[in-house]
Specification:
The structure holds 2 protein chains of 2 kinds. Chain A is mainly beta. Helix content of chain A is 0%, strand content 50%. Chain B has strands at 3-6, 10-12, 18-25, 34-39, 45-51, 58-60, 68-73, 78-83, 92-102, 105-112, 116-120. Chain B starts with a strand and ends with a strand. The chains are: A mainly beta, B mainly beta.
């Protein structure tokens, strides 16, 4: 089974700073036939269900602000928030959906300094 | 508008059975896999399993095999998560989520239910 490892566990930054969250899968999640990485990023705010931000490792879901971007391929991925805003305080999770089971990373808590 | 609406919070005793629901609307129920995700208090997200509403084909995470059952009722566009014998360690928030598609390729869990809080305590 694939294991997802996220880092760091938490991140405290000032408003406007860049946030970088890393995610590594123990096996490749790349569908080489179609050049798609089945890796998603979610944002979860307290008391709410998770919200899809990014799929195929780098495609923003509809309505997601452009300050959120995803990159990477194969086993190593990154979520970047280019300029941290107050409403970005949340826990962020990566997830692979290439094979079953479909585990999430442990989560990264992002806070404002 | 796509919606996944889950049943309300439950308080149960260890050993009791429970079935919670996820009613979908705004799209064709048989066309999208439904996934179930557990979140224990203060913890992260755990993928439990998925069910294909078209034929009820199911995959469960090894961590949950033998303890939960997934099912659907296509006539009312509803998916279910069921326990035969609850444990205190089943206390958690449970979410249903749809696996979306874009241009024919899976595109993450694009719609989520609001969650069902299950509390198991003697």
């Amino acid at each position: 089974d694939i294991v997802m490892t996220q880092s760091p566990e938490s991140l405290t930054l000032a408003l406007g700073e860049r946030a970088t969250i890393n995610c590594r899968s123990s096996q490749s999640v790349l569908d080489s036939s179609h050049n798609k990485n089945y890796l998603a990023w979610y944002q979860q705010k307290p008391g709410q269900p998770p919200k899809l931000l990014i799929y195929w490792a780098s495609t923003r879901d509809s309505g997601v602000p452009v300050r959120f971007s995803g990159s990477g391929s194969g086993t190593d991925f990154t979520l970047t928030i280019s300029s941290l805003q107050p409403e970005d305080v949340a826990v962020y999770y990566c997830q692979q959906y290439s094979t079953t089971p479909r585990p999430f990373g442990q989560g990264t808590k992002v806070e404002i300094k | 508008e796509v919606q996944l609406v889950q049943s309300g919070a439950e308080v149960k005793k260890p050993g009791e059975s429970l079935k919670i629901s996820c009613k979908v609307s705004g799209y064709s129920f048989p066309n999208y896999w439904i996934n179930w995700v557990r979140q224990m208090p203060g913890k992260g997200l755990e993928w439990m399993g998925r069910i294909d509403p078209a034929d009820s084909y199911t995959n469960l995470s090894p961590s949950f095999q033998g303890h939960v059952t997934l099912s659907v009722d296509k006539s009312i566009s509803t998916a279910y998560l069921q326990w035969g014998s609850l444990r205190a360690s089943d206390t958690a928030m449970y979410y249903c989520a749809r696996l979306g598609y874009n241009s024919g390729f899976p595109s993450g869990f694009d719609y989520w239910g609001q969650g069902t809080l299950v509390t198991v305590s003697s």
